[in-house]
Amino acid sequence: MGLFDSIKNAAERTLKQEATKAVNEAVQNIGKGRNHSEKFTFATLAGSLAELQAYPEATLDSAFKTAALTVVALCNYEKDEQATIEMLNFLKGPEDVSTYEKQFIKERLAGKYYKTFSFFEGATPENGYKPTTPYTISVSENPYSFDNENWATLFVTSSGADSPRQIKLRKKPSTGQWFLNDIQCLSDIRVPVSEDPWA
Fold this sequence. Notes:
Blueprint (H helix, E strand, L loop, with lengths): L2 H26 L8 E6 L6 H5 L9 H12 L6 H12 L6 H11 L4 H4 L17 E6 L10 E6 L8 E8 L4 E8 L15
Antiparallel strand pairs: 1-2, 2-3, 3-4, 4-5
């Protein structure tokens, strides 16, 4: 066997090994960081920090749980702004809701409290975004959700929007808990049909 044949055979072996490795890694990664989603169901929506902490999801041991509870907490804003901030402070962990964030939430929800309910099943522009009960919400990831260590960007889908909305979360490695970092899901959606002059 000549030198050329030896080099060629070695190259082919290396290519086969790399291809096998790539296939094995792809198989192992199926279902990880792809388009996985989790559903959460609540008999009632929390109206206080104590009620929020009573949910089994309040362990905050997954980013999905924290994202779902963020939407639950925001649904209380119209009824009790202070209690809502207390719930969000709990979900933010080591940090509190900043003055800027409080103002942002206030501006985004003023007169549009239906936005937060639009993320639950059964809510539609036609029914004024009234969810079916028990309240069920899906939280999803995409292939890039967990690209950065200890950070996650998850998605909730509003029936009044054409694309999913983001909630950013951060993991505290010492406790394994995921905390709310940034609420990015409060952009405007289609107004309820009852409020739409063009409906």
